[in-house]
Protein backbone atom coordinates (compact mmCIF):
# COMPACT_ATOMS: atom_id res chain seq x y z
CA UNK A 1 0.00 0.00 0.00
CA UNK A 2 2.88 2.38 0.82
CA UNK A 3 4.38 1.76 -2.61
CA UNK A 4 0.99 2.49 -4.18
CA UNK A 5 0.74 5.85 -2.35
CA UNK A 6 4.36 6.77 -3.15
CA UNK A 7 3.79 6.09 -6.84
CA UNK A 8 0.74 8.37 -6.85
CA UNK A 9 2.66 11.04 -4.93
CA UNK A 10 5.43 11.02 -7.52
CA UNK A 11 2.93 11.17 -10.35
CA UNK A 12 1.11 14.10 -8.72
CA UNK A 13 4.39 15.90 -8.13
CA UNK A 14 5.53 15.52 -11.75
CA UNK A 15 2.12 16.67 -12.99
CA UNK A 16 2.21 19.76 -10.81
CA UNK A 17 5.76 20.62 -11.82
CA UNK A 18 4.79 20.36 -15.48
CA UNK A 19 1.68 22.48 -14.98
CA UNK A 20 3.59 25.10 -12.98
CA UNK A 21 5.61 25.97 -16.04
CA UNK A 22 2.55 26.25 -18.24
CA UNK A 23 -0.11 27.86 -16.09
CA UNK A 24 -0.70 30.37 -13.35
CA UNK A 25 -0.28 30.80 -9.62
CA UNK A 26 -2.23 27.96 -7.89
CA UNK A 27 -2.06 24.68 -9.71
CA UNK A 28 -4.20 21.59 -9.09
CA UNK A 29 -5.29 18.74 -11.38
CA UNK A 30 -8.82 19.64 -12.51
CA UNK A 31 -10.01 16.04 -12.28
CA UNK A 32 -8.85 12.86 -10.55
CA UNK A 33 -10.26 9.34 -10.51
CA UNK A 34 -9.78 7.11 -7.46
CA UNK A 35 -10.49 3.45 -6.77
CA UNK A 36 -13.23 2.96 -4.17
CA UNK A 37 -12.13 1.48 -0.84
CA UNK A 38 -8.49 2.54 -1.40
CA UNK A 39 -6.58 5.67 -0.29
CA UNK A 40 -6.36 8.62 -2.65
CA UNK A 41 -4.24 11.78 -2.72
CA UNK A 42 -4.98 15.41 -3.56
CA UNK A 43 -2.25 17.95 -4.31
CA UNK A 44 -1.94 21.70 -4.91
CA UNK A 45 1.04 23.90 -5.73
CA UNK A 46 1.40 27.64 -5.41
CA UNK A 47 4.11 29.94 -6.79
CA UNK A 48 4.50 33.34 -5.18
CA UNK A 49 6.02 36.68 -6.11
CA UNK A 50 9.01 38.09 -4.33
CA UNK A 51 7.94 39.54 -0.99
CA UNK A 52 4.87 37.35 -0.65
CA UNK A 53 4.61 35.11 2.41
CA UNK A 54 2.43 32.00 2.82
CA UNK A 55 0.66 32.17 6.19
CA UNK A 56 -1.79 29.24 6.11
CA UNK A 57 -3.02 26.35 3.98
CA UNK A 58 -6.58 25.01 4.14
CA UNK A 59 -8.31 22.13 2.42
CA UNK A 60 -12.11 22.16 1.96
CA UNK A 61 -14.39 19.31 0.94
CA UNK A 62 -17.34 19.43 -1.46
CA UNK A 63 -19.54 20.99 1.27
CA UNK A 64 -16.95 23.75 1.88
CA UNK A 65 -16.09 22.27 5.26
CA UNK A 66 -12.47 22.43 6.37
CA UNK A 67 -10.93 18.94 6.46
CA UNK A 68 -7.32 20.01 7.12
CA UNK A 69 -5.35 23.20 7.76
CA UNK A 70 -1.87 24.12 8.91
CA UNK A 71 0.71 26.88 9.01
CA UNK A 72 3.81 26.06 6.93
CA UNK A 73 6.18 27.44 9.56
CA UNK A 74 4.62 25.27 12.31
CA UNK A 75 4.92 21.68 11.16
CA UNK A 76 3.57 20.24 14.40
CA UNK A 77 0.32 22.19 14.28
CA UNK A 78 -1.85 20.37 11.74
CA UNK A 79 -5.58 20.33 12.35
CA UNK A 80 -7.54 17.66 10.50
CA UNK A 81 -10.64 15.48 10.57
CA UNK A 82 -10.54 11.70 10.94
CA UNK A 83 -9.44 9.84 7.85
CA UNK A 84 -7.41 12.73 6.40
CA UNK A 85 -3.62 13.06 6.65
CA UNK A 86 -1.07 15.63 5.53
CA UNK A 87 1.17 13.47 3.36
CA UNK A 88 3.62 16.07 2.15
CA UNK A 89 4.36 19.77 2.31
CA UNK A 90 7.32 21.10 0.39
CA UNK A 91 8.42 24.70 0.66
CA UNK A 92 10.89 25.96 -1.89
CA UNK A 93 11.99 29.34 -3.12
CA UNK A 94 8.71 31.22 -3.62
CA UNK A 95 6.75 27.97 -3.97
CA UNK A 96 4.79 25.55 -1.78
CA UNK A 97 3.29 22.13 -2.51
CA UNK A 98 0.62 20.57 -0.28
CA UNK A 99 -0.42 16.92 -0.60
CA UNK A 100 -3.13 15.26 1.54
CA UNK A 101 -4.30 11.64 1.72
CA UNK A 102 -7.83 10.48 2.38
CA UNK A 103 -7.42 6.97 3.74
CA UNK A 104 -10.48 5.33 2.19
CA UNK A 105 -12.35 6.44 -0.90
CA UNK A 106 -16.11 6.10 -0.42
CA UNK A 107 -19.10 7.32 -2.45
CA UNK A 108 -19.47 10.24 -0.02
CA UNK A 109 -16.00 11.45 -1.07
CA UNK A 110 -17.00 12.18 -4.65
CA UNK A 111 -17.10 15.87 -5.50
CA UNK A 112 -14.86 18.91 -5.79
CA UNK A 113 -12.17 19.78 -3.23
CA UNK A 114 -10.49 23.16 -2.78
CA UNK A 115 -7.02 24.06 -1.55
CA UNK A 116 -6.75 27.58 -0.10
CA UNK A 117 -3.46 29.43 0.36
CA UNK A 118 -3.52 32.52 2.61
CA UNK A 119 -0.79 34.71 1.13
CA UNK A 120 0.38 38.00 2.61
CA UNK A 121 -0.16 40.66 1.40
CA UNK A 122 -1.90 39.42 -1.78
CA UNK A 123 -4.76 37.58 -0.09
CA UNK A 124 -6.27 34.15 -0.52
CA UNK A 125 -5.43 32.02 -3.56
CA UNK A 126 -7.25 28.77 -4.35
CA UNK A 127 -7.20 25.70 -6.54
CA UNK A 128 -9.87 23.11 -7.28
CA UNK A 129 -9.83 19.34 -7.99
CA UNK A 130 -12.92 17.27 -8.69
CA UNK A 131 -12.82 13.61 -7.69
CA UNK A 132 -14.75 10.73 -9.25
CA UNK A 133 -14.70 7.10 -8.16
CA UNK A 134 -14.44 3.83 -9.94
CA UNK A 135 -14.76 0.38 -8.37
CA UNK A 136 -14.10 -3.30 -8.91
CA UNK A 137 -16.48 -6.12 -8.12
CA UNK A 138 -15.54 -7.98 -4.93
CA UNK A 139 -16.37 -11.66 -5.04
CA UNK A 140 -15.56 -14.60 -2.80
CA UNK A 141 -13.03 -17.18 -3.91
CA UNK A 142 -13.89 -20.46 -5.60
CA UNK A 143 -16.08 -22.67 -3.39
CA UNK A 144 -16.57 -26.36 -2.73
CA UNK A 145 -19.75 -27.91 -1.35
CA UNK A 146 -20.85 -31.45 -0.52
CA UNK A 147 -23.82 -32.70 -2.51
CA UNK A 148 -27.10 -32.07 -0.68
CA UNK A 149 -25.72 -29.19 1.38
CA UNK A 150 -26.70 -25.49 1.00
CA UNK A 151 -24.34 -22.72 -0.05
CA UNK A 152 -24.36 -19.04 -0.98
CA UNK A 153 -22.34 -17.22 -3.63
CA UNK A 154 -22.01 -13.49 -3.07
CA UNK A 155 -20.38 -10.46 -4.66
CA UNK A 156 -20.31 -6.76 -3.91
CA UNK A 157 -20.11 -3.48 -5.82
CA UNK A 158 -19.68 -0.51 -3.51
CA UNK A 159 -21.01 2.10 -5.95
CA UNK A 160 -24.50 0.64 -5.67
CA UNK A 161 -26.29 3.88 -6.63
CA UNK A 162 -24.97 3.47 -10.16
CA UNK A 163 -26.30 -0.09 -10.53
CA UNK A 164 -29.40 -0.57 -12.67
CA UNK A 165 -29.52 -4.38 -12.77
CA UNK A 166 -27.81 -7.41 -11.25
CA UNK A 167 -27.45 -10.55 -13.35
CA UNK A 168 -26.11 -14.00 -12.43
CA UNK A 169 -24.88 -16.39 -15.12
CA UNK A 170 -23.57 -19.96 -14.97
CA UNK A 171 -21.04 -21.47 -17.33
CA UNK A 172 -21.01 -25.27 -17.31
CA UNK A 173 -17.93 -27.43 -17.76
CA UNK A 174 -18.91 -27.98 -21.39
CA UNK A 175 -18.80 -24.20 -21.99
CA UNK A 176 -22.54 -23.53 -22.19
CA UNK A 177 -23.61 -20.30 -20.46
CA UNK A 178 -27.11 -19.74 -19.05
CA UNK A 179 -28.75 -16.93 -17.10
CA UNK A 180 -29.62 -18.10 -13.58
CA UNK A 181 -31.27 -15.08 -11.93
CA UNK A 182 -31.60 -11.31 -12.14
CA UNK A 183 -32.78 -8.33 -10.12
CA UNK A 184 -33.86 -4.83 -11.16
CA UNK A 185 -34.40 -1.99 -8.69
CA UNK A 186 -37.92 -1.82 -7.19
CA UNK A 187 -38.83 -5.21 -8.63
CA UNK A 188 -38.74 -8.81 -7.47
CA UNK A 189 -35.80 -11.13 -8.21
CA UNK A 190 -36.37 -13.32 -11.25
CA UNK A 191 -35.22 -16.96 -11.18
CA UNK A 192 -34.99 -18.65 -14.57
CA UNK A 193 -37.14 -21.77 -15.08
CA UNK A 194 -34.41 -24.47 -14.87
CA UNK A 195 -33.39 -23.15 -11.44
CA UNK A 196 -36.76 -22.37 -9.86
CA UNK A 197 -37.44 -23.99 -6.52
CA UNK A 198 -33.74 -24.64 -5.86
CA UNK A 199 -32.18 -21.19 -6.02
CA UNK A 200 -33.02 -17.80 -4.49
CA UNK A 201 -31.59 -14.30 -5.04
CA UNK A 202 -31.72 -11.47 -2.53
CA UNK A 203 -33.16 -8.11 -3.70
CA UNK A 204 -30.00 -5.99 -3.55
CA UNK A 205 -28.09 -3.91 -6.10
CA UNK A 206 -24.94 -3.52 -3.98
CA UNK A 207 -24.35 -6.87 -2.28
CA UNK A 208 -25.94 -9.69 -4.22
CA UNK A 209 -26.30 -13.24 -2.87
CA UNK A 210 -27.24 -16.31 -4.90
CA UNK A 211 -28.29 -19.18 -2.62
CA UNK A 212 -28.53 -22.84 -3.63
CA UNK A 213 -30.68 -24.79 -1.15
CA UNK A 214 -29.34 -28.29 -1.85
CA UNK A 215 -26.35 -28.46 -4.15
CA UNK A 216 -26.39 -31.15 -6.84
CA UNK A 217 -23.68 -32.28 -9.23
CA UNK A 218 -25.36 -30.37 -12.06
CA UNK A 219 -24.80 -27.14 -10.10
CA UNK A 220 -21.05 -27.43 -10.63
CA UNK A 221 -19.63 -24.72 -12.88
CA UNK A 222 -18.45 -21.10 -12.89
CA UNK A 223 -20.82 -18.35 -11.77
CA UNK A 224 -20.53 -14.75 -12.93
CA UNK A 225 -22.24 -11.83 -11.23
CA UNK A 226 -22.76 -8.81 -13.47
CA UNK A 227 -23.55 -5.31 -12.25
CA UNK A 228 -25.09 -3.28 -15.06
CA UNK A 229 -24.14 0.28 -14.11
CA UNK A 230 -24.52 3.78 -15.48
CA UNK A 231 -22.33 5.35 -16.69
CA UNK A 232 -19.58 2.78 -16.10
CA UNK A 233 -21.12 -0.09 -18.08
CA UNK A 234 -20.98 -3.75 -16.99
CA UNK A 235 -18.78 -4.69 -14.05
CA UNK A 236 -18.39 -8.42 -13.37
CA UNK A 237 -16.48 -11.10 -11.51
CA UNK A 238 -16.48 -14.92 -11.64
CA UNK A 239 -16.06 -17.72 -9.10
CA UNK A 240 -16.24 -21.46 -9.71
CA UNK A 241 -18.18 -24.03 -7.70
CA UNK A 242 -17.16 -27.65 -7.20
CA UNK A 243 -19.69 -30.17 -5.90
CA UNK A 244 -18.34 -33.18 -4.03
CA UNK A 245 -20.12 -36.51 -3.54
CA UNK A 246 -18.54 -38.23 -0.54
CA UNK A 247 -17.67 -41.94 -0.77
CA UNK A 248 -19.43 -44.67 1.21
CA UNK A 249 -17.02 -47.55 0.65
CA UNK A 250 -17.93 -51.23 0.74
CA UNK A 251 -15.61 -54.22 1.01
CA UNK A 252 -16.08 -57.94 0.34
CA UNK A 253 -14.15 -60.98 -0.84
CA UNK A 254 -14.67 -64.03 -3.03
CA UNK A 255 -12.86 -67.37 -3.03
CA UNK A 256 -10.73 -67.81 -6.11
CA UNK A 257 -9.35 -71.23 -5.21
CA UNK A 258 -8.90 -73.37 -2.14
CA UNK A 259 -6.15 -71.20 -0.69
CA UNK A 260 -6.64 -67.90 -2.54
CA UNK A 261 -9.26 -65.16 -2.02
CA UNK A 262 -9.80 -61.90 -3.86
CA UNK A 263 -10.69 -58.88 -1.73
CA UNK A 264 -12.64 -56.03 -3.38
CA UNK A 265 -13.22 -52.49 -2.16
CA UNK A 266 -15.46 -50.05 -4.02
CA UNK A 267 -16.44 -46.41 -3.57
CA UNK A 268 -18.68 -44.10 -5.58
CA UNK A 269 -17.80 -40.41 -5.30
CA UNK A 270 -17.07 -37.13 -7.06
CA UNK A 271 -14.25 -36.61 -7.77
CA UNK A 272 -12.85 -40.14 -7.79
CA UNK A 273 -11.62 -41.50 -4.45
CA UNK A 274 -8.22 -43.09 -3.84
CA UNK A 275 -8.24 -46.68 -2.54
CA UNK A 276 -5.38 -48.60 -0.99
CA UNK A 277 -4.90 -51.71 1.18
CA UNK A 278 -2.95 -52.00 4.40
CA UNK A 279 -1.64 -55.41 3.34
CA UNK A 280 -0.17 -54.34 -0.01
CA UNK A 281 3.37 -55.67 -0.23
CA UNK A 282 2.66 -58.41 2.33
CA UNK A 283 4.42 -61.67 1.46
CA UNK A 284 1.07 -63.49 1.48
CA UNK A 285 -0.48 -61.31 -1.24
CA UNK A 286 -0.41 -62.46 -4.83
CA UNK A 287 0.72 -59.12 -6.26
CA UNK A 288 -0.20 -55.43 -6.23
CA UNK A 289 -3.80 -54.25 -6.11
CA UNK A 290 -5.59 -53.60 -9.39
CA UNK A 291 -7.75 -50.46 -9.57
CA UNK A 292 -10.54 -49.84 -12.10
CA UNK A 293 -12.56 -46.67 -12.76
CA UNK A 294 -16.15 -46.50 -14.04
CA UNK A 295 -17.81 -43.21 -15.00
CA UNK A 296 -21.49 -43.14 -13.95
CA UNK A 297 -24.27 -41.15 -15.57
CA UNK A 298 -24.78 -38.77 -12.63
CA UNK A 299 -21.24 -37.39 -12.85
CA UNK A 300 -19.79 -39.63 -10.14
CA UNK A 301 -17.02 -42.21 -10.52
CA UNK A 302 -16.97 -45.74 -9.15
CA UNK A 303 -13.52 -46.90 -8.11
CA UNK A 304 -12.96 -50.61 -7.54
CA UNK A 305 -9.72 -51.93 -6.04
CA UNK A 306 -9.02 -55.68 -6.05
CA UNK A 307 -6.19 -57.61 -4.44
CA UNK A 308 -5.55 -61.36 -4.24
CA UNK A 309 -4.08 -62.95 -1.13
CA UNK A 310 -3.71 -66.25 0.64
CA UNK A 311 -6.92 -67.09 2.50
CA UNK A 312 -5.12 -67.52 5.81
CA UNK A 313 -4.19 -63.83 5.75
CA UNK A 314 -7.81 -63.04 6.58
CA UNK A 315 -7.43 -65.05 9.79
CA UNK A 316 -4.03 -63.72 10.78
CA UNK A 317 -4.29 -60.04 9.86
CA UNK A 318 -6.89 -57.27 10.15
CA UNK A 319 -7.22 -56.51 6.45
CA UNK A 320 -8.30 -52.92 5.81
CA UNK A 321 -9.35 -50.97 2.77
CA UNK A 322 -8.32 -47.31 3.06
CA UNK A 323 -10.34 -44.68 1.14
CA UNK A 324 -9.23 -41.08 0.78
CA UNK A 325 -11.18 -38.20 -0.79
CA UNK A 326 -10.69 -34.45 -1.20
CA UNK A 327 -13.91 -33.76 0.68
CA UNK A 328 -12.87 -35.78 3.75
CA UNK A 329 -10.63 -34.52 6.54
CA UNK A 330 -9.34 -38.05 7.18
CA UNK A 331 -9.43 -41.44 5.50
CA UNK A 332 -12.25 -43.98 5.85
CA UNK A 333 -11.20 -47.52 6.80
CA UNK A 334 -13.27 -50.63 6.04
CA UNK A 335 -12.19 -53.85 7.75
CA UNK A 336 -12.39 -57.17 5.96
CA UNK A 337 -11.81 -60.39 7.93
CA UNK A 338 -12.95 -63.95 7.52
CA UNK A 339 -14.45 -64.31 10.99
CA UNK A 340 -16.75 -61.37 10.33
CA UNK A 341 -18.40 -63.30 7.51
CA UNK A 342 -18.40 -66.76 9.13
CA UNK A 343 -19.82 -65.73 12.48
CA UNK A 344 -22.83 -63.81 11.20
CA UNK A 345 -24.88 -66.96 10.58
CA UNK A 346 -24.18 -68.68 13.96
CA UNK A 347 -24.95 -65.51 15.88
CA UNK A 348 -28.15 -64.97 13.88
CA UNK A 349 -29.15 -68.62 14.37
CA UNK A 350 -28.60 -68.34 18.13
CA UNK A 351 -30.83 -65.28 18.25
CA UNK A 352 -33.58 -67.06 16.33
CA UNK A 353 -33.31 -70.14 18.63
CA UNK A 354 -33.56 -67.92 21.70
CA UNK A 355 -36.68 -66.20 20.38
CA UNK A 356 -38.30 -69.59 19.58
CA UNK A 357 -37.46 -70.89 23.06
CA UNK A 358 -39.05 -67.86 24.72
CA UNK A 359 -42.18 -68.26 22.59
CA UNK A 360 -42.38 -71.97 23.48
CA UNK A 361 -42.14 -71.21 27.23
CA UNK A 362 -44.90 -68.65 26.98
CA UNK A 363 -47.16 -71.08 25.13
CA UNK A 364 -46.56 -73.87 27.70
CA UNK A 365 -47.28 -71.51 30.57
CA UNK A 366 -50.62 -70.49 29.05
CA UNK A 367 -51.52 -74.08 28.42
TrEMBL record:
Query: Pfam families, per this entry?
Result: C2-set_2 (PF08205), V-set (PF07686)
| Highest rank taxon of the organism | Eukaryota
Every copy of the Ig-like domain together lies at 134-242, 247-335
Read off the InterPro entries from this record.
CD80_C2-set, Ig-like_dom, Ig-like_dom_sf, Ig-like_fold, Ig_sub, Ig_V-set, OX2G-like
The transmembrane segments are 344-364
Q: What are the entry keywords?
A: Disulfide bond, Glycoprotein, Immunoglobulin domain, Membrane, Signal, Transmembrane, Transmembrane helix
Q: Does the keyword Signal apply?
A: yes
Q: Which SUPFAM superfamilies match?
A: Immunoglobulin (SSF48726)
Annotated Gene Ontology cellular components are: axon; cell surface; membrane; neuronal cell body
Its name, as the record gives it, is OX-2 membrane glycoprotein-like
